[in-house]
Amino acid sequence: MTTNTILLIILSLIVAVGLSYFQYYYKAKSTLKVNLLLAFLRFLGIFGLLLLLINPLITTNTTVVDKPNLAIVVDNSSSITNLKADNVATELHSKLTSNKDLKEKYNIQSYQFDSEFLPFQKLDFKGTQTNLDGIAKGLKAINRNNSFPTVLISDGNQTSGNDYVYSFDASNKVFPVVLGDTTKVLDLKINQLNVNKYAFLKNKFPVEVFLHYSGTKNITADFQISQGNSVLNKQRVSFSPTKNTAVVNVLLTANKIGTQLYKASLISAEKEINSYNNHKNFAVEIIDQKTNVAIVSSINHPDVAALKRAIESNAQRKVTVFNTKQINQLNDYNVLILYQPRSEFKAIFDSNKLARINTFIITGTHTDFGFLNQQQNNLEFKMTSQKEDYLAGFNSQFNLFALDNIGFENFPPLQNPYGKIKTNGSTSILLSSKIRNMETEAPLLAFGENQGSRSAFLLGENSWKWRLESYIQNESFDKYDVFIDKIVQFLASTNSKKSLVVNHESFYNSGDAIEITAQYFNKNYEFDEKAHLSIALVHSKTKKTTTYDLLKGNNAYKVNLDGLPAGTYNFTVKELNSKSTYSSHFEILDFDIEKQFVNPDLDRLNQLAALTQGKVCFPNQMDALIQSLLVDEDYKTIEKNNISRSPLIDWKWLLVLICSFFAIEWFVRKYNGLL
């Protein structure tokens, strides 16, 4: 508060005293005792008003105690029950969170995890997946820029996500508390099995199997792959304490079309505590042909290689790249991708007028748009020689096929000449174009249908950057590759339009996310947002029927069927108003990944503790862990002085008090007949 402000307050005090004295003593006709009260009320009211006029800044000084955070994270997956450590985990969590000394030093944050990282609710140890990598990401997001220790109560066995050892921040100590018996026991295990999801009739397909042995003596075991009662392949494998892994490669023949179920087994005469992990079921869908895709380009561009990789990520697709002079027989292909067509593409366009193969046209800075206007009538181009960068805008009302927004708005721009693009006929726009967030009212990705032929148009080059950006965002190419595969699937299909379209896999593993999507179209083939879809599931053995409603998303109806037991399910999706139906089946393979472990992963927990300068503990060492957390000088309580300044006019209660003083004065004067 400045000197001038203090002088003004003193002057206000003198003025308030003077006016009160003048009113009730100097000028007063009577000397009633009540005059002292009235003078005091008048003084308070006038002094308050003058203070508001001066409006001094009021400084407040408060002390804030800032405790360091302590994250306590408990494994809620079913592997904890399998290792008979569920009661121990519950007791350890309770002991840590209820410790008075820890609560005095730390702000305790309590969490649980299985496939997801969640605030602590209740431990039931029913999680079907374990993602320790998710803990690191969750804690970083919650405690951003803060230093904090973490107590991780887990067996360390991870079944999904990236390597958690290197995910945690090295500057924040992690203290793993090991759940389960670390005593090594004899165990044979199918550690991993790799096989393609699809194979082609009469072809051989590879199966790669990684075997693991834990024990102290030399043993032999038989590895076999069977289908039903038939053994398709059998071989002997030897293990020892030093040679505890083996890789087996088998070629199987695809003899029958459809989903074929197989069982891999590792059999020995030794007695094991856990024999569940000696077997693994897997399935392969046998199909009779591939979708052949031809990419035709007269220039070299990274877009072509990115498209080829994305399309061939689906084993049902085969891509061949040609220049304009190489391709002859168009009838050998199901889809034509014409990259930046120019006049030398004329022979291909002429041949395709007879072959009527669906096309995917991609334009860019090398495209001859005058030539392209002559060869098709879905889009009309009026382009300039000026280059422009176009960003994408997702159309959630697009209804030709179901597709989620994979982050198109955040993808790098595509480059195309600047100009006007007009859509003709039945053209559907999936992605609209924007120039620096300004809508152009022109498409970026559009689909057309004309007399039974289908076309797709991507109006810009450098889509290879989209695939790279998708990988950066998701640590996988999968989402972008599925996006391209949906385009190819739409173009490869020659089926007539159906009112009810259902998408599902032929088989799933137990514990996987099982989602079935459906689209229902009205008579104008527009997505019907008022449809009422339900799905009836029938287990093939128990004949138990369960019905679910499908919930509407952006451009599809969805149902989540996670948690279903293994087996074959027949199902029917029905639209209740029109009675349209779709029937099919899928298989859930018996595979519980959480039953694969006989010991905690002590080695990786030790690595994690070493990298973060923490320490591995066992349940009988909890008192020592608590004591080390209490004496750790790296995490201290910090006292902060917060100084805040606010103008007096912001004090609303002062105005209320001033009004109260004048009101009381008036009532007292009225009561004593002084008015």
From TrEMBL:
Keywords in alphabetical order: Membrane, Transmembrane, Transmembrane helix
Residue spans crossing the bilayer: 6-24, 36-58
Descriptive protein name: VWA domain-containing protein
Naturally occurring in which organism (per UniProt): Flavobacterium zubiriense
